[in-house]
Write a structure and sequence with these properties.
Layout (H helix, E strand, L loop, with lengths): L1 E4 L6 H4 L1 E4 L9 E10 L2 H8 L15 E9 L11 E4 L14 E5 L3 E3 L6 H6 L1 H10 L4 H4 L3 E5 L4 H12 L3 E6 L2 H10 L3 E4 L5 H8 L5 E4 L2 H10 L6 E4 L11 H7 L2 E4 L7 H16 L8 E5 L3 H9 L5 E5 L1
Parallel strand pairs: 8-9, 8-11, 9-10, 11-12, 12-13, 14-15
Antiparallel strand pairs: 1-2, 3-4, 3-6, 3-15, 4-5, 5-7
Length: about 325
């Protein structure tokens, strides 16, 4: 099969290559998926660049997310079958075979059935962004019904699905963006109130809409501390899913006074039971038609270097390979 691989970490143009390698067979508890879409997340290029770990022991096929069709089922797998359309998450986590290839072998639970009518583009967009959004919101729809949620960066991948999942659960959603173009994307996802944080009076505008929020899905804690604390109160939970170049200094007294809870989310370390609950919520939302794909930029597998560089340079929407 054709696959993008790297054998050492470094710049995309220096270490990524498309090669012919042997298609793997699924082992116990695994399935093999014929990949139709391979989606790229920021952690994919950061891992390849060596920012999050070490060189692979032999080679690594990158990319955690994607969509495709199961074409082989390993022993002991009873709830997946050949011919089933699926969306993938965490494919390359602890696994040599990510989705940047014609075929991927992975644990069966990481290949989630895609319902009839759901597009491959939507399936490829889900994965890490949607499951991260679910975990930030605690995969607890009943608690969100009637709640107010603030989503920082509503035009980003996690922000997009945080908006849609919160709305699906019955919350009202405020989001912050950096441009009118991104504001339109957030409105299309269902945000009730959109604020450009680069304009003067952003905090006052948010507080004018809601003096206190119940949940905050945060992409840049240091940059947004003043806004978060301005609308936080007893019971407010701030879930932080991304880091910044410099660690923020926390104003401990202000946090204590607000009685807010600060929680950090990195999907790769989430407990299996919690991860399963997150995936189940996303799966249900897809089946209900509540989630939509991000605007997509597509590349061929041979253009994996350009595709990863596009994500590294901050592309808006979802960049994906079509093998």
């Amino acid at each position: 099969m054709k696959a993008a691989v790297y054998r050492k970490t470094g710049p995309a143009a220096d270490v990524l290559a498309v090669e012919e390698i042997e298609a793997p067979d699924p082992g116990p508890g695994q399935v093999r998926v014929r990949i139709t879409r391979s989606a790229i997340n920021p952690t994919d290029w950061k891992t390849r660049a060596g920012l999050t770990g070490r060189d692979p022991e032999d080679f690594q096929v990158p990319h955690q997310d994607g969509a495709g069709v199961i074409d082989a089922v390993g022993p002991d797998v009873t709830d997946r079958e050949t011919g089933q359309s699926v969306w993938l998450h965490l494919a390359a986590f602890g696994n040599q075979f990510g989705t940047a290839a014609e075929y991927c072998v992975l644990p069966a639970e990481r290949a989630v059935p895609l319902p009839d009518g759901a597009s491959e583009d939507l399936g490829a967009c889900l994965g890490v962004p949607a499951v991260t959004a679910a975990h930030c919101l605690r995969a607890d729809p009943e608690a969100l019904d009637g709640a107010t949620v603030l989503v920082a960066g509503g035009a980003g991948a996690v922000g997009h699905y945080a908006i849609e999942l919160a709305k699906y659960a019955g919350a009202r959603v405020i989001t912050t963006v950096s441009s009118e173009e991104k504001g339109e994307l957030a409105r299309a996802a269902g945000a009730d109130f959109v604020v450009n944080y680069r304009e003067a009076g952003a905090i006052e505008r948010v507080r004018g809409y809601a003096e206190r929020v119940d949940r905050i899905v945060e992409v840049a804690l240091g940059a947004n501390l003043d806004l978060d604390l301005a609308v936080a109160g007893a019971g407010t939970e701030i879930a932080v899913y991304a880091n910044e170049p410099n660690d923020p200094v926390l104003p401990v007294r202000r946090f204590m006074t607000s009685n807010a809870t600060l929680r950090f989310v990195l999907l790769y370390g989430v407990r299996p039971t919690d991860l399963a609950a997150d995936v189940a919520w996303v799966r249900g939302a897809v089946a209900a038609g509540a989630l939509t794909p991000l605007p997509a930029s597509t590349f061929g597998l041979d253009d994996v270097v350009a595709a990863q560089e596009a994500v590294e340079n901050g592309a808006v929407g979802k960049v994906m390979l079509v093998p």
